[in-house]
Amino acid sequence: MNKENLKISESKNPPLEGREVFPGEIKELPGGGIVLSKLDDIINWARSNSLWPLTFATSCCGIEMMSTAGAKYDFSRFGFEVARATPRQADVIIIAGTIVNKMAPVLKRLYDQMADPKYVIAMGACAISGGPFFYNTYSVVKGADHVIPVDVYVAGCPPRPEALLHSLITLQQKIKSGMTREQIKVHKESTKG
Amino acid sequence: MTNEELKIKLAEILPTATIEEAAEIGPGWITVNVEPIEWLAFAQQLRKEEALHFNFLFCLTCIDWKTHLTMVYHLRSTIFHHNIVVKAKLDRDKPAIETVSHIWRTAEFHEREVYEMFGVDFLNHPDLRLLILPDGWEGKNPMRKDFEDPVNMIRL
Lengths: 193, 156
Prior knowledge:
The complex is a heterodimer of chains A (193) and B (156). Chain A is of the alpha/beta class and 193 residues long. Chain A has helices spanning 3-12, 39-48, 61-69, 104-113, 124-129, 161-177, 181-192; strands at 25-29, 32-36, 53-54, 92-96, 119-123, 152-154. The termini of chain B are far apart. Chain B is of the alpha/beta class. Chain B contains 3 helices and 7 strands, in the order αββαββββαβ. The interface between A and B is small, with 7 and 9 residues.
């Protein structure tokens, strides 16, 4: 199939905003249809719909995260149901709470132990910037992005479960939109030299 | 034992102490101000005296008043259900007081925390070293009012 045909089919079936769509188009043929897609898109689609969060909560945001996991908000509707107690099985780390200087190496180690591709959500004011209360102290890291790279920031103290759900869906859209952080890094290095 | 009876009993044990009923921390709280040198003998009596039987040290902390430090001990009897607060004024430059960790075992950890946060030297403590702070923090006491950390803190 050449590029012109693809363009035509895209304009016929514009992606529905806010609706889960399988990446690719249906090519109608006599006797049925076939789905045309890129393997990268399908991989991203699969990844984004099965993100396993790490059970990692350092303060009160953790209570909101538990609430989000509970029956009322239930983030398993979006593919986050399997919270893992080990970083080796987790895909996303939700930093729910204050990171102190003593916790920073632990967070770094947990992140390093996670398998690629891995994603990070900074939940709440403490994880974003040190927090509204304890930022001016000897012990608090002023933002978790001093330690590990962050994909999505959720503001709030603590953020409502709806906000966390929104951040998780935002992360899914981010995954679907292109390459992973590791792929971008490799891509940059290969184009540099 | 009622508070009035407690006051009489405490005055008998330690006549030099000043006893007051602090209204600001709620009714029923008797505050006993003791000298640091008298504290150990007084604590032993509080624990051993049949009628008092203070077997539960539920709070041990310190306050920095900029001019001096105050050690604060909250005691309770789980049999008679009476409470007292014991305070001891310490010199800010060289704070030292006897440990009570062999009377109330819980004091061991709490005194280590006060040691790292305020720099109070607990005499005869079995294991006086930093509790939460990482190595290298000896001598820097973050809960002192004049503590400064130019790397992590903005001066307000």
